[in-house]
Write a sequence for this structure.
């Protein structure tokens, strides 16, 4: 199904699928075992333009729509979800926030080196004691005249060890609650920035995740994104893009798991015939495919609303909620269809099973999505 994608969208989706099948899928298990992604792959995908997918052309980007990027992201994540989240965070969170809220000088300074992959972006919002409750973050950025002095700790930072540009949310007015939060760009090489060790995760092992500490980090005033005290609103706005990205990451994982389940069910023989001939297996496959298509419809609706410049907070949350739960359902069924083999690392569905779990947690938990949806419904 093309879901109203243009011919150009479909061509780019097909190119991404070709790249993913040739360069990612054959090595995805190795990336998972080694808990890293080769730097040459990031350079290669930067040359293809995928690190500046939605960035404006004047800064070297492709200036393509969220809808187009969503289709590409699905294909990448179907091959390696850990690699896909690198692209999602870099594009939909980091490049996007600079495009929307950066000054002209800031865009000229950062976007050209980000779209080539010279500098990867990391989004530093979550803290050890501040997850869903963004207003409770404790990182501070105190005005020192010609610079801000930043102190604090960010945790679960995707791309933490790869990043050259850190998008950091901190309190410029600690007494003002959510109205005192601002957003700064920080170079990872600046004095006082300490990158922690890679986190040992259940899944998404190809993705680099770390803690980052800031100790008396001097950040120039011109590195402020948006207006002072507008960080909370900016974070919520940008998270819509991130949630659409995670939706298509989940769709990619689910589609890959379904493909593996169909293939295995045709090959596996029990009671003298392939197990795909049994109604119990057929019903599982039918339910899996139906939920995946439903997720795509929700995802593309949110993406196309965003591209049209229309409010999409409720739709992005609905998409993220449904797609993440759908992916976990589908991969669970794929493992079940594989039986004991599905529990073995020899089969890709074992990795999909682990990778899918976090889609219900990051970019806002399923519980947080329900809060957003309910609030929007009651407001309407």
């Amino acid at each position: 199904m093309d879901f109203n994608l243009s011919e150009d969208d479909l061509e780019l989706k097909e190119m991404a699928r070709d790249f993913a099948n040739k360069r990612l899928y054959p090595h995805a298990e190795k990336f998972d075992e080694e808990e890293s992604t080769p730097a040459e792959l990031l350079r290669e995908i930067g040359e293809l333009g995928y690190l500046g997918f939605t960035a404006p052309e004047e800064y070297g980007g492709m200036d393509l729509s969220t809808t187009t990027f969503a289709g590409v992201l699905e294909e990448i994540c179907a091959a390696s979800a850990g690699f896909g989240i690198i692209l999602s965070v870099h594009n939909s969170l980091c490049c996007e926030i600079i495009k929307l809220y950066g000054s002209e000088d800031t865009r000229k300074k950062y976007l050209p080196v980000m779209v080539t992959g010279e500098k990867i972006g990391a989004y530093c919002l979550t803290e050890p004691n501040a997850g869903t409750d963004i207003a409770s973050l404790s990182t501070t950025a105190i005005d020192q005249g010609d610079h801000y002095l930043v102190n604090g700790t960010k945790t679960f930072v995707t791309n933490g060890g790869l990043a050259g540009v850190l998008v950091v949310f901190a309190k410029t007015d600690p007494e003002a609650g959510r109205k005192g939060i601002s957003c700064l760009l920080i170079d990872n090489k600046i004095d006082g920035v300490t990158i922690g060790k890679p986190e040992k995760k259940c899944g998404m092992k190809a993705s680099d995740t770390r803690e980052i500490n800031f100790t008396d980090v001097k950040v120039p005033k011109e590195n402020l994104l948006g207006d002072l005290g507008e960080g909370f609103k900016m974070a919520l706005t940008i998270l819509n893009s991130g949630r659409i990205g995670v939706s298509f990451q989940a769709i990619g994982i689910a589609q890959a798991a379904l493909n593996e389940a169909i293939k295995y069910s045709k090959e596996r023989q029990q009671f003298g015939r392939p197990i795909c001939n049994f109604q119990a297996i057929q019903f599982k496959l039918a339910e899996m495919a139906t939920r995946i298509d439903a997720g795509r419809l929700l995802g593309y609706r949110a993406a196309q609303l965003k591209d049209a410049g229309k409010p999409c907070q409720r739709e992005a949350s609905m998409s993220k909620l449904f797609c993440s739960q759908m992916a976990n359902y589908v991969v669970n069924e794929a493992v079940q269809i594989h039986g004991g083999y599905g529990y073995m690392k020899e089969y890709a569905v074992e990795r999909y099973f682990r990778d899918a779990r976090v889609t219900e947690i990051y970019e806002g938990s399923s519980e947080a999505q329900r809060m957003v949806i309910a609030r929007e419904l009651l407001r309407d």
